């Protein structure tokens, strides 16, 4: 979800983090062990803050769930030696060890969530479970070289209207790299179990139900722990929300084709398309409403901190995207390319200060918003090279 790791957060909305119940939930206790910060959330749930190298988010919260067969992890963190050391020392501080882990449930395929899953499986023999839509992305990334990926991205951004100076840097990045291990996203472990939406996972002694929440990725899942809250907070159990629902930031929503890449023929799709491809932003908004209906007592996200008031946070995010779409319609009073649209959108910093790689992510997000407006019948394509988009008279 982080910049450089598959996502870019949008501009924070005024009042984010100030709504009632949105602060860290009561009752959790932190303790430290060999550099790892471990939080005991009660009721057989702990979390370890596993660092993400060079990321403003700082860490991924890897949750440790006690079961009658042994500990199960929810996500594993970024594949980096320092991150591995923190994960393993954190498990010891939590009263267990990596060798005792029996399973890993992966909320989505991004490397700050799935990166260390292979090492955990090698150390413990644990099973790895993921939604099949994200498993397909992992499979595709494993057969795509970095050079092929950058070549594909150059074509996609050319279709989006990126300037030549931006494309030139991508072409340079597409040149074969010196020998050495590929980046984490190209060596991710293949899961060996499939997460089935709406079904309970096979975790003896626990009731953990998979909730399919596409949007951030096509196979993102939240996990609903259908047990009484240990502090008796009002609501229905606890929700491990991955990147879907965060207390202070909005997750990146781009086009699914951008995730599939050249190995899966993604380049055949237009930059935002008219009917081509899925509607990730529409998926995300519908998924948010579903999570609100669950009414969990507490949300345990993969970043930032635990919080209560899920329905209020969902409403903030729905309102945020509604305002964003309305703003886009104003911009599209004149035909714009996807790149020009991204330049004019509001981000968490001015466009000229957005780093090179993050601009690629911003363009994918702009394309997802354009596709939502096309699906709503509010925007049409203007043929040309590159394609432009314009608001429709209503």
Automatic annotation (TrEMBL):
Residue ranges of the region described as Disordered: 1-46
Lineage: superkingdom: Bacteria
One Pfam family it belongs to: Lactamase_B
Metallo-beta-lactamase domain span: 59-303
InterPro entries xref list: Metallo-B-lactamas (IPR001279), NDM-1-like (IPR050855), RibonucZ/Hydroxyglut_hydro (IPR036866), WH-like_DNA-bd_sf (IPR036388)
Coiled coil: none
PANTHER family reported for this sequence: METALLO BETA-LACTAMASE SUPERFAMILY LIPOPROTEIN, METALLO-BETA-LACTAMASE DOMAIN-CONTAINING
Protein name: Beta lactamase
Lineage: Bacteria, Bacillati, Actinomycetota, Actinomycetes, Kitasatosporales
């Amino acid at each position: 979800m982080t910049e450089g790791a598959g996502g870019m957060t949008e501009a924070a909305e005024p009042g984010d983090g100030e709504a009632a119940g949105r602060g860290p939930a009561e009752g959790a206790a932190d303790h430290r062990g060999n550099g790892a910060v471990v939080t005991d959330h009660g009721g057989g749930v702990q979390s370890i803050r596993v660092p993400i190298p060079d990321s403003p988010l700082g860490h991924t919260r890897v949750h440790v769930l006690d079961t009658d067969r042994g500990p199960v992890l929810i996500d594993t963190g970024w594949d980096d030696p320092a991150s591995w050391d923190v994960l393993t020392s954190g498990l010891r501080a939590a009263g267990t060890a990596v060798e005792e882990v029996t399973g890993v449930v992966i909320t989505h395929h991004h490397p700050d969530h799935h990166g260390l899953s292979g090492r955990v499986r090698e150390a413990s023999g644990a099973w790895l479970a993921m939604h099949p839509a994200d498993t397909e992305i992992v499979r595709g990334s494993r057969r795509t070289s970095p050079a092929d990926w950058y070549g594909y991205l150059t074509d996609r951004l050319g279709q989006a209207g990126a300037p030549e100076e931006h494309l030139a840097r991508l072409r340079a990045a597409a040149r074969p790299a010196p020998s050495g291990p590929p980046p984490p996203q190209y060596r991710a472990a293949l899961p060996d179990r499939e997460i089935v939406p709406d079904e309970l996972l096979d975790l003896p002694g626990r009731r953990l139900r998979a909730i399919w929440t596409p949007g951030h990725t096509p196979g993102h899942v939240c996990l609903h722990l259908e047990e009484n809250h240990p502090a008796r907070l009002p609501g229905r159990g606890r929700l491990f929300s991955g990147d879907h629902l965060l207390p202070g930031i909005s997750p990146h929503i781009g086009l699914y084709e951008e995730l599939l890449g050249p190995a899966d023929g993604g380049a055949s799709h237009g930059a935002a398309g008219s009917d081509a491809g899925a509607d990730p932003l529409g998926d995300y908004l519908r998924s948010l409403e579903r999570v609100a209906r669950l009414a969990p007592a507490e949300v345990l996200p993969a970043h930032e901190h635990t919080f209560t008031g899920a329905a209020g946070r969902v409403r903030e995010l729905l309102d945020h995207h509604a305002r964003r779409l309305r703003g886009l319609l104003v911009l599209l009073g004149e035909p714009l390319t996807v790149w020009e649209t991204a330049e004019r959108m509001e981000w968490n910093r001015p466009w000229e200060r957005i780093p090179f790689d993050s601009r690629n992510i911003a363009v994918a997000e702009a394309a997802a918003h354009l596709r939502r407006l096309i699906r709503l019948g509010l925007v049409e394509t203007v043929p040309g090279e590159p394609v432009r988009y314009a608001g429709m008279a209503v």
